[in-house]
Batch of 2 targets.
Target 1
Amino acid sequence: MTNKQKWQIIKRSIHEVNCLQGWLMPGYFIVKICDLLTEIISIFVTSLVVDAVANGDDVKTVLSYAIFVVGCYLILWVTKYLIYDKNNTRVFEFEKKAQKKLWEKVLDMDYVHLEDTGTQNDYGRAKNQIRNDRTGLSSVCNNMTNLISGIFCVVIGAILILSMTFRKSVKSGGFLGFICSPWGFIAAVVLVILFEIARAFFTNKSIKYFENIDNDESVISANRAMTYYEDYVFGNYRNGKDIRIYSEQELIFDDYNKNASLINKAWLKGYKNKLRNDVPCVILNILSKITVFGFAALRAMSGMISVGEVIAFVLYFTKISEGVTEASNAYGMLMLSPPFCKQYFDFLDIADQKYKGKIPTEKRDDNEYEFEFKHVYFKYPGSDKYVLRDINLKWRIGEKMALVGRNGSGKSTLVKLLCRLYDPSEGEITLNGIDIRKYSYDEYMALFSVVFQDSGLLSFSLGENVAASFDVDKERAEECLRKSGLSDLLDSIPNKLDTFLYKDFDENGVEISGGEAQKICLARAIYKGAPFVVLDEPTAALDPISENEIYTKFSTIVGTRTAIYISHRLSSCKFCDDITVLDNGQIVQRDTHENLLNTEGVYSAMWAAQAEYYKDTAGSLFE
């Protein structure tokens, strides 16, 4: 990465922080200026007091200096801590807003990205840069403030020290005369600068080593593992049952400790390296101070400056040295930050691949929407293997169709294409004769109610989960729940639709079974009232009685809407008007249940295999 590219990212990082929390960087700067002014005033007044005492000035003069210092201290201290405390709140607000921005990206980005492991890794890296106080987003503002304040410290110190430097030299020869001359001052400055440059070199070596640790793939992987354990294993009480039943504690802690050990070893090596570089830094710092003290003492011996000015000179020079060090370190950290901040922006900059048209979908009272697949091929991103090949399929309006086939035959993928979670690699899908990519994406998605096998529920109230909104039509939601077979649950919970699911946010929340969860998802699909219903293995977690209840009521539940039913259990497909059989990514059969049974092919073979399985299972149960 070139310096130009680094500064572009630094500018973008500062702009991002200012947009999310405008007063954060000014707050940092005000705190730094208050600290600097406090120290400068202290040095200046200390030199005056020392000279006043040495010159035998009256007590009133000394007290006036003390009162001035106390007054300045009080003003600066109050200002600093008011800003400092407020800035702590601003940092928290910034982190929440930045995290929210990432969440919004996750919720709005194309599903094709969301399912990609690389994108998940990108999200993990982006999230880390929000709270990375060394090289993350907020640290850029902090380091830029330190760079500016360091330069400001050097400038102020130089202005104050110059008034004591270029005075008329006392007559003195030899080395003392050289020290009292402007050339002596220049020589001392050059020597101190050389010491500080050498210190910066060793400091940057340490920083560079830590950068290598942050970029080490094994450390990144270990950090992701630690985050997984902390967020999804230790922080999710629902895992507790399996962990205890299968005694997984040792497995978890062994892997957790392995990753923690890898991270600790990497950072230990970093701190050992830092210690090796700290030794020459300390020596160089001592040499720098000896140079300054010696220079001031020799000038005082010649009578060029007073005792109080010696103290001021040394302390001003020390502040200049500290300013140079602060600016150097801040610049070094700034130059390390762009690759890390870029991870945050790279995630936000992930471009949507889908073309999202603007044609509104028809608002039809008769729900007559006709979908057609025309020579559709599809392969997942990063794969050369086609999951679907030359799919040609049309849905007759108002009918119930089943999609069946072996695992991996492409059933769920076909539904994902229909719902525009993915776009075809080749071919097109049309709605009423128009390519679905030309429709408004949000309006097109509103046409579907889908129950996936792994559909998820949120830790909100039962009613909010059904309505997918805080605005719940309670009468309608209750009707949908009863249609989906949840009358017993609804009658048994005291707060009805206001009952929270799970105990994440309410200790009185209810824990629901997998079957109940699928029924709630089915109720959510009914509540939405979309004209096209897709049920992807909706009864996989249900007991046989509940499953039969859903099948029996299926026509009533779906009504006149078009429906696709995906299942491995062929017995559940008998109620469908049309059955499409997929095998190895292609449509191999399509007909009614009775006709398919009487035709040699994949469907009849699967039916015979499942019938034999149930026969054998039933026999073994009653032996």
Target 2
Amino acid sequence: MQILSPQHPTSCKARLAAICLLLCMTVANAVADGRIKVACIGNSVTFGHGIEGRDSLAYPAQLQRMLGDNYEVRNFGKSGATLLRHGHRPYNEQEEYRKALEFGADIAVVHLGLNDTDPRNWPNFRDEFEHDYRQLIDSLQAAAPEGHLKRLVICLMTPIFSGHPRFESGTRDWHSEIQDAIRRVATHYGVDPLDIHSPLHCRPDLFPDNLHPTAEGAEILARTVYGGITGDWGGLSLPEVYGNGMVLQHDAPAMAGRANAGTKVTVTVRGKHYKQRTTVTADGNGYWRTALEPLKPGGPYTIDIETTDKETLQLQDILAGEVWLCSGQSNMAFRLDQCATAQNDVLQAPAYEEVEKGACLRFFNMRGRWDTYDNTWTSEACDSVRLLQYFSPTHWTPCNAMTAAGFSAIGYHFGRVLADSLQMPVGLICNAVGGSTTEAWVARTTLEKEFPAILKPWMHNDFIQDWARSRAARNLGVTGKKAEDTRLLRHPFLPSYLFETAIAPLRAFPIKGVAWYQGESNAHNKEAHDKLFTLLVDSWRTEWNDLGMPFHFVQLSSLSRPSWTWFRDSQRILQSEIRNTGMVVCSDLGDSLDVHPRHKREVGERMAAQVLHEHYGYSHIVPCGPVPLGAVFTDEKAIIFFDYANDLHACDGDVLRTFEIAGPDGVFYPAEATVTGEGKLTVTAAPMVKEATSVRYGWQPFTRANMVNNAGLPTSTFRFDKK
């Protein structure tokens, strides 16, 4: 391993002291007991600040127990220490540093940088960070037996959460910049940086002061460092979504999993008259991923996975086809056996079970272990949710009467039309959760950067809908408790929770796109939702490394809730602003009193038609109802222009309803609408409106709007104002 000479000038006195120190260490090493010595270099997290009984529960102490008697682990953590030598408390000037050098470790675990985010440090001395880090490592190398470490573990930093007082004023951004600098240092020494950040970033409940982990957090940290030292990550394993009977995205198949560090993993795909093989090496954190050559749709295929450690796995009955993720809240989770056409639908489902027919469906149905109904969960359930164990274990299943009946009704009908049209297998993953909020599905890193206010304590956070907060409090049994008593509790409705439990586990599994139906739990604040939905789409596309990944969503239907008119219109605008998205209108299928309308077949079929048109070349299919493009105002009239507007007419043979015009006073009155050309509609104001300045359509929470196009598809709620 390369050892760099110090580049900072050093006094003769300091050099003499270093020589004496090395001589002392040589003597100490000569009488060592043969155990492998591990030095844990760090700051207060390594020290164990805030942990009662830290001598036995700080991460180095727990690491000692994990490694066993063949290792000697020493804690050289110094609270408040900086890596920067010009920082406010340089580690290299502390007694802990001197003792670490005297120890003469075989293995060094370095976790520094958190205190360098202090405004006294990073803004002034950032250019010195990598140089100072190398000097620290070089000194540890020189102090090691025979002048080099047996293993160097350079750790990324543990998280600093949004509740930290300096989070938005600089800590958040500087933390990210320091992580990048640590990665560059690790690259210089030819090692993979140990990711101790990710296993803890999803556990804010383990950081009561937003900086220091509890003993439970220290255990996770110790377990991760154990893997970094030994390379033992539990051997060959796959995420749950990779399993027998799965459907792989045929044009971009991939396999991913974990294995012990440095292990070579060979993946072999076999089919009738077909075989491909690829080999990849697990990185220092135990992760491996390999892209496969495109597969011919159909199957079945068999996938064999073997490692140089002689571990093997075999996946059977694999199909290649199109994979879509169906997600959102209760209207997406709404089961096929609950919808209006359930009897016929369930009877027809077995037709999509036979692989030989080409058109077949398979389901990966992720279900919450506890429904978010109006009840109180047991303490065991609350603890499981805290541990991110909300979803039940599941596996891929073929479509039949039983599996389809319990699957998403919209998802089933969406997939059925795709399979029929494409004549290939379709895999559907469903992880919708009833009542879930948009923010629950957005990556924590994204919210920390773009919307940190929504991460504030949830009991008194008005960005989170009051209903969602109340229901979460009811489920957790904390109704009426103070904010400080509930700040660290976890629930599926809380920001980022469902991203961490339902999306992150799928990140390595290629999908074609997303079918989404959600918004009911964010309709109280369309402005916040506008931002959150955009962040959700962006964070998912980033997670799958596909910035153009198709994302199609269902607009909220009709329901007697006053905010829904504005919310539906905001969804219409979002569809036009976020690229490669599509919106399905279903306001004609709503129920004035029930947030769960039962007509789901039509919704799934409409989404499938849109997706076939946009992504599979079915240009002859009309993808949506008339799309309002804008309006021109003249005197008492508004002329509105539409796309996808062949044969504009009323679906029920009546006059076109629910058009309204307002003048400068902002008071709307019913108006008369007449089709005056291809994709053109003239709306004439009531006599009391002398100058038209605003026009709107379907502007009732539960609307009886009736305008459709030649495909019988409805027009969205919309509003245009004179500029």
